[in-house]
Amino acid sequence: MTGGANTAALPRTRSARGLVDLVFRARELSLVIALAALVGVTAAANPNFLSGQGIEDILLNTAILALLAVGQSMVVITRNLDLSVGSVVGLVAFVTGDMLASGWGVVPGVALGVAVGAACGLLNGLLVSLCRVPALVVTLGTLYVIQGVCHYIAHGRQINAADLPPGLLALGNGAVLGVPYLPLITLAFMLAIGYYLRAYPSGREFYAIGSSPEAARLAGVPVRRRVLVAYLVSGCLAGLAGVLWLARFGTVIADSANGWELLVISAVVVGGVAITGGVGSVYGAALGALLLTTIGSALVVLRVNPFWQQAITGALLLLAISVDRVLALRVARLLRRRSRHG
Amino acid sequence: MSDPPALALANVSKSFGAVRALREVSLELFAGQTHALAGENGAGKSTLVKTLAGVHRPDSGQVLRGGEPVTFASPADAQRAGVAVIYQEPTLFPDLSVAENIFMGRQPRATLGRIDRGAMRARAGELFARLGVTLDPEQPARGLSIADQQLVEIAKAISRDARVLVMDEPTAALSGNEVARLFSVVEALREDGCAILFISHRLDEIFALCRRVTTLRDGALVATEPVSGLTHDDLIRRMVGRDLGALYPKQDTRPGEVALRVDRLTREGVFTDVSFQVRRGEIVALAGLVGAGRSEVARAVFGIDRWDAGTVTVAGRPLPAGSPTAAMGAGLALVPEDRRQQGLVMELSIERNIGLTGLRSLRRGLTVSRAAERDRARDWALRLRLKYGRLADGVGVLSGGNQQKVVLAKWLATGPSVLIVDEPTRGIDVGTKAEVHRLLSELAGQGIAVLMISSDLPEVLGMADRVLVMHEGRLTAEIPRAEATEESVMAAATGTGRAA
């Protein structure tokens, strides 16, 4: 291999890398562009959309979904799935509400909620990682079990905002310098987890597991422990989301977040986390949540029948997956060509 | 040789159920020496490798490192002890960068335990410089050729300071110049004092690279001896326990009419302007380096991938692009390159796999008849001399050579007029290889047109009536049997003989 060949080969591989980077960044970029277009069109039709109240509503509505999406991404990145998050939110919201209504303080209440979520996550994680049951089956099972437990505890009752301590309701609806607490909480968790996954060796192992479980095992990655941690984090965040749900809405019935698990997974996939693991970021997932929520609000503002919201969410999901697939094929072909000529 | 061996097995036995994969096998690997392990498929080579790698634990006997008994409870244990294994098909993280692949779990750290990406990139660059190869540490592992993936694995091994390098058929999927590059890297590691265990079905490579050779047969040790003084035939005799006839028994046939005609076939960025024909009774080899586009042509002809321009004609009738069903209907059969992934459904039984291509013909009324399926499987198993326990066993338990026979049976059962085989004997032991060759020759004798893609040059030269050579997506030469030599084929494959 001559020196001339080396120097000739380098710029080519570098531009290949640049392109690959661009494709992966492109997801976050295209989400931002889609979001801007959506907001622009909607605001043109109805200027109220961009009022302080309108934006605050969107941020509040996004916060819980994005928090769940951040936890879910961690699980999906390891090539697993957590379908139980909607049920966990419902259970935690109700149980925590019950305790707070009976006189608990806010801090013990939050701790209880997170603990209940952690327990659910631990159960999922143990079943998936130790018993090697496919994640889809395990979390579908826990979805129904947790739902059942919640209905049993609720027994037809509901929690009323009037019974809750004002401190909690302030958490849900208060703001600092005009920015509501909820999105700030989500932002903090998103940044912390995103940084951990990117910058720490153990964080990279989540990607390694999702990219190739077999290679991860051979490389000495503690696969089971990491998968367990992913479920634990998802459970804890779902628990926290349950408390925030209670704080935001105040009045909750049993299983109030029924069906949210699919919304969360949609946000994650639209946000560019590959359902087959190994690819994506929590930032993308959170952006996906923001986009889905904004679409919902925009449709209301544009007076579109809410029925269309689900159809549009679905279409967006299909679009995201098709774009991923096409891009993956393009990139593979490009890399092939470059490695042949490079 | 007063130093204890860097790594050794002492009287190791290992059984899986009733199958005794290793019987009292001993092996000593010394620093600064390359040691070959030879044996047919199913002789226990893979089990031995996996014992060294910490995947299997011996039922009895010991693993010794530097003379001390050790227990490898996991692959990670073996790695910590300085044992690195390069598998035929490396297991990398396709979505992560090359540098991350090398340093997963051992990344250089900056403050607060964060990964120092700059240092990681620089160290990966140093490793590649030491190996004398150009690979971009930031490139994702997806899209790397198998040869490059192996280099990444070797870089990983060096970065772990591995003292023992086990290479399980590393050259099976490599082209000539990739093999040469690998050999120079291995040679450099050996000079640095690594102990190397090298496994290959290509005997030439054993003779070129290794100092001593250990031969296994049916899980037992046959001999450990210096390579010098041995001949190819000696080694083959030790491996199979008997003398083989000619390895490449192509019988002369008189080619009939054209069965498959490919005219100016082009798939954008993959292959360009490929034209050839195959006559009935003829074996035509498609040679070339890995990545020259040979398998891609086969896939396009069979309709798995679409082509952008050109025509494919079978027995005078044009085939539509991109339809395997139409190709099968026209009498085409494709035995793919990667039998585990593309050729077989590993979870299914032998009989189910053989039956897969003819589910319609196995129908009795509305459902597939199990009895008809079994009859067909038994028939083909007999004709191809398949070695199996029960037809209801999963194909996963068969050795590589026998799996290949199942794939062949599956496609022969469709009664094809044109058979395309992609690397029919890759990773197959010498004995079964000869049987596959005999079989292909017989099929040609029966008037089937055979298109054989192969990277095994002696196989190409021995089997083919004509040799087509591809280079970078183009057909560069068509060489008749009489003129085909290693030199002429390699010249065309590397693009140096284009003028000729």
Helix/strand class of chain B = alpha/beta
**SS class of chain A:** mainly alpha
From the N-terminal CA to the C-terminal CA of chain B, the straight-line distance is 52 Å
Numbering strands along the chain, what is their spatial order in the largest sheet of chain A?
1-4
Coarse shape of chain A = globular
What's the number of domains of chain A? 1
State Rg of chain A: 22 Å
- Most extensive interface: A-B, 39 and 34 residues
Number of strands of chain B: 22
Count of helical stretches of chain B: 17
What ranges of chain B have pLDDT less than 50 throughout 5 or more consecutive residues?
Answer: none
The number of helices of chain A is 13
Oligomer designation: heterodimer
Portion in strands of chain B: 25-35%
CATH architecture of chain A: Orthogonal Bundle
E-strand count of chain A = 4
- The CATH homologous superfamily of the largest domain in chain B: P-loop containing nucleotide triphosphate hydrolases
Rg of chain B computed from alpha carbons, rounded to a whole number of angstroms: 24 Å
Strand order of the largest sheet of chain B: 6-7-8-3-9-10
**CATH topology category name of the largest domain in chain B:** Rossmann fold
